[in-house]
Design brief:
The chain has 69 residues and is an all-alpha fold. It contains 2 helices and no strands. The protein has a domain of 30 residues. Keywords: Membrane, Transmembrane, Transmembrane helix.
Length: 69
């Protein structure tokens, strides 16, 4: 196997790995953002339950803390 052929295959292989890495990073970021956006309805429901008097202030604050707010 000559050097030019070997380096060509190496370059193609590295580019494919780089493409895979980029796809994984983008997928991870999109899933991360999706998880955060799904937390908003939970807070709205919690606020509504607190406003209706279904949960006390201590429970409300503890749940907010557990949700990361």
């Amino acid at each position: 196997m000559d050097d030019e052929n070997w380096t060509g295959w190496l370059a193609i292989n590295l580019l494919l790995w780089l493409l895979l890495l980029i796809v994984l990073i983008v997928t991870n970021v999109r899933l991360s953002l999706q998880d955060k956006s799904e937390g908003i309805p939970a807070k709205k429901i919690l606020d509504k339950r607190y406003a209706n008097g279904e949960i006390c202030k201590e429970e409300y604050e503890e749940i907010l803390k557990n949700l990361g707010y």
